[in-house]
Amino acid sequence: MKPDTENKKPEQGKEAKYINGNQTEQEDPCENKKDWKQGYNLISRLFMMHLLRISVNVKRVLQSGRNIGLSNLQTLSEDELCERNSSIFIQNLENAQKNGPLTPMKVWKSLISVFKKKGYVVLFFSFIDTSLKLFNSVALNFCIQSLIDSNQKMAYVWAAIMMASMFFSSLFRQYSWTLGFNFNTHLRATFIDTIYRKINKLSNFAVRSANLGKVINIVSSDMNTTELKFIYLFQMIIGIYTLSMACIILAFRLGPLGMLSIVFLILILPIQSLIGKIASRFTQKRVLKSDERIKLINEIIEGIRIIKIYGWEEAMRRIIDKIRSDEVSYNIKAYISQYSEKAISSSSVLISSCLTFIIIYYEGSYELNYAKIFSSIEMLTYIKANIISFCGQGFAYIFELQIFLRRFIDIYNIKDISSHKVDYTSSNYNKIQPNEVAKFDQFYSFWKEPSFKNNQQTNNQLQTILKTEEQPGLQESDTFQMEKLNPTLRNLSFAIKNKELLAVVGKVGCGKTTFLQVFLNEIPYIKGYYEVQPLNDQGKPLKMAYVEQEPYIFSSTVRENILFGSQFDQEWYSLVVKNCCLLPDFEQMDQGDLTVIGERGVNLSGGQKARICLARAVYSKADLYLLDDPLSAVDSKVAKDLFFQCIRGVLKEKTVILVTHQIHFTRNCDRIAILDESGSLKSIGSFEELHDDLKVLTAGQLKFENMASKMGDSTKYSQKNIDIQSQKSQKEVKEVEKENSSDGSENQIEEKKEEKPKQANQIKPENVNITFSTYTRYLKLINQVIFLFPLWLFILFACAECAFTTYNRALGYFDSVSEENKDKLFGFWVGFAFLYMILNGFKYITLSVGIQKGNKSLHNKMLESLVRAPVLFFDRTSSGNLMNKFSNDISLLDNLLPFCSCDSLDIFSNFLNLMITCIVFTPYVVFPAIAQIILLSIFFMYSKEIIIKIRQMDLMQKTPVFSHFNSTLQGVIPIKVYGQNNTFLKKMSALCNNSQRANMSFWLCSRFFGGYIQSISILCSTVGVFIIIAIPGQSTSQQAQAITYFMLMVDAIQWCLRQMITTDSVMNSFERVNILINQSPEASLYNENDKKYTNQLSSNDQILWPSQGQIEFKNVVMKYSKELHPVLKGLNFKANSGEKIGCIGRTGAGKSSILQALFRLTESEAGSSILIDGVDVSELGLHKLRQNISIIPQIPFVFGGTIRRNLDPLNEYKDEQIWEALRNVELDKYILEKCKNGIETDMTVASSVFSVGQKQLICLARALLKRNKILVLDEATANVDMETDNLIQKTIRNKFQECTVLTIAHRLNTIADYDKVIVMNDGVVAEYDAPINLLCNSLSDQEITKNTIFSQMVKNTGKNNSANIFQLAKEKYLSANQVDQ
Asked: Could you tell me which residues come within 8 angstroms of residue 1105 by beta carbon, excluding any fewer than 6 positions away?
């Protein structure tokens, strides 16, 4: 949840800042108000003073016991802001597109040109670093040569020069890498912001048509690769200069043949390129699997309640585990390729040097000695580490970059599928008139691109104008052709008048929602005339408001959800929330309208979400209101209040298009448009004119009275509100509202205005600590899949170091071995060089495969914990946080951990080997060695916490970016309709900049650590080198080796420790993932008692259950969490076998909580019992319970995959059974006509194939397949027309005749003929009896005579509809009890 600091609106002229909940707005003594340079000049920055200040400031925060906040991090300069860089990048891309389609190279050039100057600066400092480093080899050669010549004084001089050169090389290197990683960070933020800007402009249909898994993966996983590996491209560029200079130095030192060693090293480059191509093929396949996995996990998180209720956890796990297995398999193949190359490049110095030395020896032109051999070894090692290895990483990244850029192009090239107005120059069309808001004439719409034989498309654009000047109007043949193309809306010709209330009604799937989406430009293909007035009555641009059928709620306060970016107007706000019936809800909420609601409104009822979205629309003060069935999710009284107080009250002077299935409200509409099943306009007119058609549409469930009398009755109902709203002056509206707010509601809102928004039990920031236990647990995880993994790893690393030491020791025997034994020595060299390569290959591959296998096991545990977590966990945890774990954290463990852990172990074992060898050669160097170890340990411990915590901060700041992406993807339409694209864009830019700051801080602190570590190492190595030179009587060979080893250690140790820190920071992801894994699960899915009960008896020991379907609640008390008040307060009722029970009540009465308790989504308190056929459900496994109760949910859930998989994810039924279920819900013909692949049709873009009502029929088909003894309907018919409702009820009566049915309903006609009705009030059963017994005192009564809650709710549906309900209830009772009427 986002805290109050996020919800506060910024002052005018100031940029909004979005900060985490662990921060405070109080004055912070450790606040950092400067950019990364910290005010230092270039010289000071070269000596890392800016890094010191940043790191020390962070350390002060940690020592004070506080968490690091954004205020403690450096700021961003103007040229570092992502919005500035992404704008330039987009402009470059647009310019590139003028010369043809985008290609990876064009994107690359467009990107690099944004940061061109910074790139040149990085290369400049890298050039100086490389020059000084190459000079080290020259100085080392002269130093060792002085020792050979017994010139100790010159040895000291050259040693001093060598160490000074190394020190300054280190300074320039740290600075160039600091700039390089800053470059990476800006690059990452620019890509993310650019992708968001693209997505932010798209229509909902375009977004849904895109692969959302790919979008999420690009933002998370792909960006991690760029962040880590992009810097190697600089090393590849500088590598040309390095190799050229090295050739010159070696030519002077060893003669022309000395350049052979460089040639041998260069020969590795094509091998690297080839292996990189091979690896990229596996990488490309892997990312596709990763996209698929992420997309499905996202769907699981969004639909977790339904998945649990259906008992599909295991099925979902199996599907994702299979995808993950393929993903890991491709990753392992890629790593085997990459680490085979790494084994070759790591041993390349040994192989190339020994071959070169052998050739030079036999050629005989130049003399070899220790000085030339070991100085050349030192240079080649540097080239191997900084050029060959980095080039290997660079080549691999280039191929990965190509894949990434192609994926980026796929996203960037998504065409906005918003419809364009077609050409209407022909006089055949009736054009819009001044008194009309919108006009349609001969209008057709299509979700899929229609193909015309005579009008072939010449481009691949999705925006298509189907009408041309050569085809000005529809001829008879055209109309016939149109009918064959199956348009969703057909030949519409009518106008919408200014300030009229137009009701749009029709059966499920007739195109009502599609009609509204025409106004939103969401229909991709249209033909005919359609226009909306561009200006309102005041001459200003016409504003629209839209209330969607599936409400969009984002994680913030209720008030912010209503305001949705608009300025807060106290009086207008009070008027809106009152007339949208939200005041009673505010009273129930802990913080009123400042209560923070969960992501997607998970802690709100369906009715509350619908009313908040309606309030959002009304508050926007629009001119045209598009209302998509907002009355279906609320009870009859609230629906009546909303209609008369809001739609016919506040919005009386506005143009309103109301799509509804509540036909009884149409009598109070100005006009009614009826759409038939084909999407054509069946008729349009007043209620009186369409009386007969409406009666047919209601399937005989409603009786209409004379319109005039009813209008008189209805207007009397809320005449005061309607009269109030007829005042067009906003001032008068406010004054009237003040007069009518004597209940103090306004004061109530104002009192809560200053309270701090909160939500109970928000998840705290995930602060994790990396300890030795972290690594032991991870190794145990790997050990479970690879037996004795740590032992095998130790043996391979030890053997590799032995081979390395043996080879170098053999080099030292060159001068002491006789000429006749030289051949054997050379064979020894070659043999151990290749042995070292083989051992390296085995150790690298073993480590990477072990990590991948371990991560696969880890992911399986994560997924199990995810689907087994209680629903309360999802209410309190943002989907962005969870998606971050499955995308970003798993990506780091998959891709970064093998790399950094391999380097850490490899270099550390090599460092120990070199250090021990030096001590053996010269025991006195043990003193600087010990000093070095002590100093490094102290500095390591000082810096470790800084880097680990700043890495955690980095990961934390990425989560809001993912959450905001998800929130935007879910709310594309309302964001666009209410003109909030720019607001959301600014927020994303702010979040990206926050993430940039945290990411930059991590890399800056890492460079601080690396730079000072290397400085300490150089200082201690200088002492060690001078000791080696000073001690007399040593072997020159051993002196040469020892000095060379000290030089190698200086470069190795800082990289080793930095990689250790990086490994530690990556293990943060492991600990973060473990937070999810360690989440307390629900009760077990299976237990021993399950064996006693079965649907089909197979032994005498088993009991057929449930055989009757009897449900009994005994003193059920339920809380959503321990610290909250009970929502069920001793609930008692019994539903006998085969009874049809209706459950009604006001919002918050506890209706949905009954289902929560029945399905054990939330466990009841001790002392409660829920019995099904006498069996306490708490004694059963969750799957035994849930899979034996069928449900049709309030919001139908479909996930990516085929229709078949949506109906039968457990793969339990044959195709014939599935088609039979579809026939029973009358979807079989529709699927055959609309879906080319039948039940194998993908439902990924379900909204363009199925309406909400048809998705509900899919859910009914699921229930028909199960054929359980108990069926639950959770307001399942709220969003369908009366005829479809009638179909559902008829199917239930016929197919579930012997079943117990429990229906939660707002539409009272649905339950009028049920056996009993439960009326809920404040968590208890207020009334429970047959409907007729709650309506009348005697069966002889001809109208409602009883004063009950139920009778009052029935009366609220209208006089004649209540009479109809009364008659249905009476007939049911008489029929059931065989009483003669």
From this structure: 1092, 1093, 1094, 1095, 1172, 1173, 1175, 1188
Whole-angstrom Cα distance, residue 1027 to residue 1043?
Answer: 10
Give the neighbor-by-neighbor strand order of the sheet with 525-532: 464-465, 525-532, 436-446, 489-497
Cα distance from N-terminal residue to C-terminal residue, the chain: 59
Least confident of 785-799, 808-822, 1059-1073: 808-822
- Is the pLDDT at 1032 greater than 80? The verdict is no
Structure tokens of 564? 């949705």
Return d(Cα 953, Cα 965) in angstroms, integer: 19
User: CA 924, CA 289: separation in Å to the nearest integer?
Assistant: 57
Question: Is residue 598 within 8 Å of residue 760, measured between CB atoms?
Answer: no
**What domains are defined for the chain?**
4-414+768-1077 (1.20.1560.10), 498-753 (3.40.50.300), 1138-1160+1189-1376 (3.40.50.300)
Q: What is the DSSP string of 1233-1290?
A: HH-TTGGG-B-TTGGGT--HHHHHHHHHHHHHHH--SEEEEESTTTTS-HHHHHHHHH
- Compute how many other C-beta atoms are within 10 angstroms of the C-beta atom of residue 516: 24
Token digits for 1243? 């439902």
Q: Which amino acid is at 335?
A: Y
CA geometry: angle at 390 spanning 106 and 224, to 5°? 60
- Residue 715 phi, psi dihedral angles, 5° rounding: -70, -30
Burial class (CB in 10 A: 0-12, 13-18, 19+), 514: buried
Residue written as token pair 């009778």: 1351
Q: Shortest CA distance to 233 belongs to which of 399, 33, 103?
A: 399
HEC sequence for 104-142: HHHHHHHHHHHCHHHHHHHHHHHHHHHHHHHHHHHHHHH
Q: Which residue type, as a one-letter code, is found at position 1134?
A: K
Specify the amino acid at residue 1313. Answer: D
The separation between CA 896 and the C-alpha centre of its own chain, rounded to angstroms, equals 20
- pLDDT of 480 strictly over 80: no
Mention every residue, 6+ apart, whose C-beta is less than 8 A from residue 1268: 1106, 1188, 1189, 1190, 1299
With 0-12 / 13-18 / 19 or more C-beta atoms within 10 angstroms meaning exposed / middle / buried, residue 1011 is buried
Task: Reply yes or no on whether the pLDDT at 160 is more than 90.
Answer: yes
Secondary element (H or E) of residue 628:
strand 624-628
- What is the secondary structure of 444-483 as a DSSP string? EEESS----TTS---S--S-EE---TTS-S--HHHHHHHH
Kindly report the average pLDDT of the chain as a whole number: 81
Residue 681 φ/ψ, nearest 5 degrees: -80, 110
Number of H helices, E strands in the chain: 51, 24
Q: What is the pLDDT of residue 125?
A: 93
Lowest-pLDDT range, 418-427, 565-574, 670-679, 1015-1024? 418-427
> What mean pLDDT comes out for the span 14-29?
43
What would the pLDDT profile of 639-668 be if each residue is shown by its tens digit? 888 999 999 999 988 999 999 888 888 888
Q: What's 280's DSSP letter?
A: H
Tokens of 115: 């940061």
How far from 688 is each of 499, 644, 705, 949, CA to CA, in Å? 20, 19, 10, 71
| pLDDT single digits (tens) 707-765 | 334 434 443 444 444 444 444 334 434 444 444 443 444 444 443 333 334 443 344 45
Contact of 1198 with 296, CB cutoff 8 Å: no
